[in-house]
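Reply to dn_fold:

You asked what the input looked like. This is it:
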Amino acid sequence: MNAKQLLASNRNYRNLWLASTGSQFGNWFNEVALAQVTLTLTHSAAAMGFVLLCRSLPSVILGPLAGPFVDRLPKRRVLMFTDMVRACFAISLILSVVLHASWILYANSALLGVSGVLFSPSWNAAMPLIVSQDELAIANGLESQASGLIQIVGAAIGGIVSATIGPGLCFSMNAASYLWSAWHIFRCHWQEEGRTGARGDGYVQSLRAGFQAALHN
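and this is what came back:
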């Protein structure tokens, strides 16, 4: 089976793939507009670096702690919830343009980072539930190829839209991409009974096991 056949035959994977690619595409609109607005309001490259730090630091700090927590939650609900929360934070970035308030950039970037911490581990945990072991390599390869293409196309189109129409539209499209993602995840249905919360180990034991696995691999 190739990637095209996997997308055509597996409805759950197709919807999950559309959700992921859509939200990633919107993220690049956000990245470009965020840079433009930050530099416009602050005239400081250091401020731009701080905004990016606010966006990425939550995943660095909270990311390792999220895996064992996500393992005990229904993946589909977590994915939908984080998408809808991120849509709210993304659209509220427009207030930084309207109010000329740079602090909104820092606060919302941090909130977007925190709300997105649960998305990636939930998405990764959902993949084995909807594709077979033989299809998993194809699915991961397709996701990697799509991410690379979106990085190029999304940044280019986002830059054009932000420069010609305005960053507000980019923030709106980012929010819309999260709603797009939530809708396609809503259309997915996979079996999680017997998996979610099934482990007898406590959170600390699971976290310790994860760090040990990382150290040995």
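The longest helix spans residues 11-42.
Hope that clears it up.
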